[in-house]
TrEMBL record, chain A:
Source domain of life: Bacteria
Native species: Thermus brockianus
Record-given protein name: Roadblock/LC7 domain protein
Boundaries of every Roadblock/LAMTOR2 domain copy: 8-96
A Pfam cross-reference name: Robl_LC7
From TrEMBL, chain B:
Kinase keyword on record: no
Domain of life: Bacteria
Keyword line: GTP-binding, Hydrolase, Nucleotide-binding
Entry-linked InterPro entries: Gliding_Motility_GTPase, Gpn, P-loop_NTPase
Gene3D superfamilies: P-loop containing nucleotide triphosphate hydrolases (3.40.50.300)
Family of the protein in this entry: Belongs to the GPN-loop GTPase family.
Organism: Thermus brockianus
Molecular function per GO: GTP binding; hydrolase activity
Segments passing through the bilayer: none
Family matches, as SUPFAM superfamilies: P-loop containing nucleoside triphosphate hydrolases
Name of protein: GTPase
Length: 120, 170
Protein backbone atom coordinates (compact mmCIF):
# COMPACT_ATOMS: atom_id res chain seq x y z
CA UNK A 1 0.00 0.00 0.00
CA UNK A 2 1.21 3.52 -0.73
CA UNK A 3 1.24 6.08 2.05
CA UNK A 4 -1.74 7.80 0.43
CA UNK A 5 -3.69 4.51 0.51
CA UNK A 6 -2.70 3.83 4.10
CA UNK A 7 -3.98 7.26 5.12
CA UNK A 8 -7.21 6.62 3.18
CA UNK A 9 -7.68 3.30 4.99
CA UNK A 10 -7.13 5.06 8.28
CA UNK A 11 -9.74 7.68 7.41
CA UNK A 12 -12.22 4.98 6.40
CA UNK A 13 -11.89 3.18 9.71
CA UNK A 14 -12.21 6.48 11.58
CA UNK A 15 -15.41 7.17 9.64
CA UNK A 16 -16.75 3.72 10.53
CA UNK A 17 -16.06 4.31 14.21
CA UNK A 18 -17.58 7.81 14.12
CA UNK A 19 -20.26 7.71 11.40
CA UNK A 20 -21.59 11.22 12.13
CA UNK A 21 -18.33 12.81 10.89
CA UNK A 22 -19.17 15.09 7.96
CA UNK A 23 -15.62 15.82 6.83
CA UNK A 24 -12.09 14.58 7.46
CA UNK A 25 -8.94 16.50 6.60
CA UNK A 26 -5.40 15.24 6.83
CA UNK A 27 -3.03 18.09 6.08
CA UNK A 28 0.62 18.97 6.56
CA UNK A 29 1.43 21.03 9.65
CA UNK A 30 2.07 23.98 7.35
CA UNK A 31 -1.41 23.81 5.89
CA UNK A 32 -1.37 21.86 2.63
CA UNK A 33 -4.16 19.29 2.10
CA UNK A 34 -3.00 15.67 1.81
CA UNK A 35 -5.98 13.34 2.06
CA UNK A 36 -9.50 14.58 2.73
CA UNK A 37 -13.15 14.22 1.84
CA UNK A 38 -14.20 17.86 1.83
CA UNK A 39 -15.32 19.43 -1.46
CA UNK A 40 -12.21 20.21 -3.57
CA UNK A 41 -13.01 23.90 -3.70
CA UNK A 42 -12.90 24.20 0.08
CA UNK A 43 -10.00 21.87 0.83
CA UNK A 44 -7.11 24.34 0.49
CA UNK A 45 -8.69 26.82 2.86
CA UNK A 46 -9.75 24.18 5.40
CA UNK A 47 -6.23 22.69 5.43
CA UNK A 48 -4.69 26.13 6.02
CA UNK A 49 -7.18 26.96 8.75
CA UNK A 50 -6.60 23.60 10.45
CA UNK A 51 -2.85 24.32 10.50
CA UNK A 52 -3.43 27.82 11.88
CA UNK A 53 -5.77 26.49 14.53
CA UNK A 54 -3.27 23.80 15.52
CA UNK A 55 -0.32 26.23 15.61
CA UNK A 56 -2.25 28.73 17.68
CA UNK A 57 -3.74 26.06 19.95
CA UNK A 58 -0.31 24.62 20.69
CA UNK A 59 1.01 28.09 21.44
CA UNK A 60 -1.84 28.85 23.82
CA UNK A 61 -1.36 25.50 25.57
CA UNK A 62 2.34 26.28 26.08
CA UNK A 63 1.80 29.89 27.15
CA UNK A 64 -0.90 29.01 29.67
CA UNK A 65 1.01 25.90 30.79
CA UNK A 66 -1.90 23.62 29.98
CA UNK A 67 0.42 20.68 29.39
CA UNK A 68 0.66 18.73 26.17
CA UNK A 69 -1.71 19.93 23.45
CA UNK A 70 -4.70 17.61 22.89
CA UNK A 71 -7.03 19.32 20.43
CA UNK A 72 -8.66 22.58 19.43
CA UNK A 73 -12.47 22.50 19.43
CA UNK A 74 -14.41 25.15 17.53
CA UNK A 75 -18.08 24.99 18.26
CA UNK A 76 -20.72 26.79 16.24
CA UNK A 77 -24.48 26.59 16.36
CA UNK A 78 -24.47 24.03 13.58
CA UNK A 79 -21.53 21.90 14.52
CA UNK A 80 -17.90 21.43 15.41
CA UNK A 81 -14.51 21.64 13.82
CA UNK A 82 -11.95 19.73 15.86
CA UNK A 83 -8.21 19.82 15.18
CA UNK A 84 -5.68 17.23 16.40
CA UNK A 85 -1.92 17.11 16.04
CA UNK A 86 -0.49 14.19 14.05
CA UNK A 87 3.18 14.35 14.95
CA UNK A 88 5.16 17.44 14.13
CA UNK A 89 4.41 17.18 10.42
CA UNK A 90 0.67 16.67 10.32
CA UNK A 91 -2.81 17.80 11.27
CA UNK A 92 -6.01 15.80 11.52
CA UNK A 93 -9.22 17.84 11.46
CA UNK A 94 -12.83 16.67 11.67
CA UNK A 95 -16.09 18.43 10.92
CA UNK A 96 -19.03 17.20 12.99
CA UNK A 97 -22.68 18.11 13.37
CA UNK A 98 -24.24 19.42 16.58
CA UNK A 99 -25.02 16.58 18.93
CA UNK A 100 -21.93 14.52 18.02
CA UNK A 101 -20.53 12.56 20.91
CA UNK A 102 -17.32 14.48 21.40
CA UNK A 103 -15.99 12.07 24.01
CA UNK A 104 -16.12 9.21 21.53
CA UNK A 105 -14.84 11.41 18.72
CA UNK A 106 -11.77 12.40 20.77
CA UNK A 107 -11.07 8.80 21.67
CA UNK A 108 -11.14 7.61 18.06
CA UNK A 109 -9.50 10.68 16.54
CA UNK A 110 -6.58 10.73 18.98
CA UNK A 111 -5.91 7.09 18.14
CA UNK A 112 -6.08 7.89 14.40
CA UNK A 113 -3.78 10.89 14.89
CA UNK A 114 -1.22 8.63 16.60
CA UNK A 115 -1.25 6.29 13.58
CA UNK A 116 -1.02 9.21 11.20
CA UNK A 117 2.05 10.44 12.97
CA UNK A 118 3.85 7.23 11.99
CA UNK A 119 2.60 7.43 8.41
CA UNK A 120 3.67 11.04 7.75
CA UNK B 1 -0.72 55.63 27.00
CA UNK B 2 -2.57 53.47 24.50
CA UNK B 3 -0.45 50.65 23.08
CA UNK B 4 0.62 51.17 19.49
CA UNK B 5 -0.25 48.19 17.33
CA UNK B 6 2.21 47.50 14.53
CA UNK B 7 1.68 44.89 11.84
CA UNK B 8 4.63 43.07 10.26
CA UNK B 9 3.80 41.65 6.83
CA UNK B 10 5.48 40.58 3.60
CA UNK B 11 5.96 37.49 1.44
CA UNK B 12 7.22 34.18 2.78
CA UNK B 13 10.90 34.14 3.68
CA UNK B 14 11.26 37.93 4.01
CA UNK B 15 12.31 37.65 7.66
CA UNK B 16 9.15 38.58 9.59
CA UNK B 17 9.65 35.93 12.27
CA UNK B 18 13.41 36.61 12.35
CA UNK B 19 12.60 40.26 13.02
CA UNK B 20 10.14 39.37 15.80
CA UNK B 21 12.76 37.12 17.37
CA UNK B 22 15.57 39.65 17.18
CA UNK B 23 13.35 42.39 18.63
CA UNK B 24 11.71 40.31 21.32
CA UNK B 25 14.19 37.56 22.09
CA UNK B 26 12.81 34.77 24.28
CA UNK B 27 9.56 36.71 24.72
CA UNK B 28 8.62 36.33 21.06
CA UNK B 29 5.43 34.34 20.68
CA UNK B 30 5.73 32.51 17.37
CA UNK B 31 3.73 29.77 15.63
CA UNK B 32 6.04 27.91 13.32
CA UNK B 33 5.39 24.57 11.66
CA UNK B 34 7.74 22.36 9.65
CA UNK B 35 7.68 23.48 6.03
CA UNK B 36 6.60 20.72 3.65
CA UNK B 37 7.55 22.74 0.57
CA UNK B 38 10.98 23.94 -0.46
CA UNK B 39 10.98 27.47 0.93
CA UNK B 40 14.70 27.73 1.55
CA UNK B 41 14.01 27.37 5.27
CA UNK B 42 12.94 24.66 7.70
CA UNK B 43 9.82 26.20 9.24
CA UNK B 44 7.08 28.63 8.35
CA UNK B 45 4.60 30.74 10.32
CA UNK B 46 1.05 29.36 10.36
CA UNK B 47 -0.85 31.74 12.67
CA UNK B 48 1.04 34.78 13.95
CA UNK B 49 4.05 36.25 15.70
CA UNK B 50 3.40 38.45 18.70
CA UNK B 51 5.20 40.42 21.36
CA UNK B 52 5.40 43.80 23.04
CA UNK B 53 8.30 46.17 23.46
CA UNK B 54 9.01 49.80 24.32
CA UNK B 55 9.97 52.22 21.55
CA UNK B 56 10.69 55.59 23.16
CA UNK B 57 7.61 56.51 25.17
CA UNK B 58 5.43 54.06 23.27
CA UNK B 59 4.45 50.52 24.09
CA UNK B 60 4.48 48.71 20.74
CA UNK B 61 2.37 45.58 20.25
CA UNK B 62 3.95 43.75 17.35
CA UNK B 63 1.81 41.37 15.26
CA UNK B 64 3.45 39.38 12.45
CA UNK B 65 1.32 37.69 9.78
CA UNK B 66 2.01 34.39 7.99
CA UNK B 67 3.59 35.18 4.61
CA UNK B 68 2.02 32.42 2.54
CA UNK B 69 -1.14 33.42 0.69
CA UNK B 70 -3.08 30.37 1.84
CA UNK B 71 -3.06 31.95 5.30
CA UNK B 72 -4.47 35.26 4.05
CA UNK B 73 -7.55 34.88 6.28
CA UNK B 74 -5.20 35.78 9.14
CA UNK B 75 -4.17 39.04 7.50
CA UNK B 76 -7.39 40.94 8.21
CA UNK B 77 -7.76 39.36 11.63
CA UNK B 78 -4.32 40.65 12.63
CA UNK B 79 -4.49 43.97 10.77
CA UNK B 80 -7.56 45.10 12.71
CA UNK B 81 -6.65 48.22 14.67
CA UNK B 82 -3.04 48.40 13.47
CA UNK B 83 -1.58 51.91 13.46
CA UNK B 84 1.49 51.12 11.39
CA UNK B 85 2.71 48.57 8.85
CA UNK B 86 6.27 47.29 8.64
CA UNK B 87 6.44 45.46 5.33
CA UNK B 88 9.41 43.22 4.63
CA UNK B 89 10.67 42.08 1.24
CA UNK B 90 13.65 39.78 0.57
CA UNK B 91 16.08 41.71 -1.64
CA UNK B 92 17.59 38.52 -3.02
CA UNK B 93 14.22 37.18 -4.18
CA UNK B 94 13.08 39.64 -6.85
CA UNK B 95 10.60 37.02 -8.10
CA UNK B 96 8.64 37.69 -4.91
CA UNK B 97 8.20 41.36 -5.81
CA UNK B 98 4.96 41.05 -7.83
CA UNK B 99 3.42 39.20 -4.88
CA UNK B 100 4.86 41.81 -2.51
CA UNK B 101 3.18 44.55 -4.49
CA UNK B 102 -0.19 42.76 -4.40
CA UNK B 103 0.16 42.12 -0.70
CA UNK B 104 1.17 45.70 0.10
CA UNK B 105 -1.76 47.04 -1.97
CA UNK B 106 -4.06 44.66 -0.14
CA UNK B 107 -3.02 45.89 3.29
CA UNK B 108 -2.83 49.59 2.46
CA UNK B 109 -6.16 49.64 0.62
CA UNK B 110 -7.96 48.06 3.57
CA UNK B 111 -5.90 49.57 6.32
CA UNK B 112 -4.46 52.87 5.13
CA UNK B 113 -1.86 53.35 7.87
CA UNK B 114 1.67 54.75 7.85
CA UNK B 115 4.06 52.15 6.47
CA UNK B 116 7.72 51.44 6.01
CA UNK B 117 9.19 48.84 3.65
CA UNK B 118 12.26 46.96 4.85
CA UNK B 119 14.44 45.20 2.27
CA UNK B 120 16.11 42.20 3.88
CA UNK B 121 18.70 39.59 2.87
CA UNK B 122 20.85 42.23 1.15
CA UNK B 123 23.99 40.28 2.00
CA UNK B 124 22.88 37.24 0.00
CA UNK B 125 23.92 37.02 -3.62
CA UNK B 126 22.75 39.60 -6.10
CA UNK B 127 20.11 41.45 -4.14
CA UNK B 128 17.92 44.35 -5.25
CA UNK B 129 18.84 47.55 -3.42
CA UNK B 130 16.24 49.46 -1.39
CA UNK B 131 16.28 52.10 -4.16
CA UNK B 132 15.45 49.51 -6.83
CA UNK B 133 12.68 48.04 -4.69
CA UNK B 134 11.23 51.53 -4.14
CA UNK B 135 11.24 52.08 -7.89
CA UNK B 136 9.56 48.74 -8.55
CA UNK B 137 6.90 49.24 -5.88
CA UNK B 138 6.50 52.89 -6.96
CA UNK B 139 7.08 54.15 -3.45
CA UNK B 140 8.95 57.23 -2.24
CA UNK B 141 12.57 56.27 -1.50
CA UNK B 142 12.37 57.47 2.09
CA UNK B 143 9.75 54.79 2.79
CA UNK B 144 12.08 51.95 1.81
CA UNK B 145 15.14 51.01 3.81
CA UNK B 146 17.54 48.10 3.95
CA UNK B 147 17.83 46.06 7.12
CA UNK B 148 19.14 42.80 8.47
CA UNK B 149 16.11 41.38 10.29
CA UNK B 150 18.35 39.13 12.39
CA UNK B 151 20.19 42.07 13.92
CA UNK B 152 18.37 43.68 16.79
CA UNK B 153 19.72 47.20 16.30
CA UNK B 154 18.78 47.21 12.61
CA UNK B 155 15.32 45.77 13.27
CA UNK B 156 14.81 48.29 16.06
CA UNK B 157 15.91 51.21 13.89
CA UNK B 158 13.28 50.29 11.29
CA UNK B 159 10.59 49.88 13.92
CA UNK B 160 11.52 53.18 15.57
CA UNK B 161 11.31 54.94 12.18
CA UNK B 162 7.85 53.48 11.61
CA UNK B 163 6.73 54.55 15.09
CA UNK B 164 7.85 58.10 14.25
CA UNK B 165 5.79 57.98 11.06
CA UNK B 166 2.79 56.54 12.88
CA UNK B 167 2.85 59.05 15.72
CA UNK B 168 3.42 62.10 13.52
CA UNK B 169 6.94 62.78 14.76
CA UNK B 170 9.57 63.46 12.12
Amino acid sequence: MTRQEEIQTLIRSLRQAVPEVSGVMVASADGLPMVHDFPEGEAARIAAMAATSLGLGKRIATTLRLGEFQETVIRGQNGYFVVYEAGEKGVLALALPTGANLGLVHLEAREAARHLKDLL
Amino acid sequence: MEPLKVLVAGPVGAGKTALAKSLLGEEALTTEAKASEDLGKETTTVALDFGTLAVGPYRVHLFGVPGQERFDFMWDVLAEGALGLLFLVAGDRPHHLPEARRMLDYFLSRHPVPYLVGVTRLDLGRAWTPGEVALYLRLPEERVMGLDARKREEAFRALARLVELATGGE
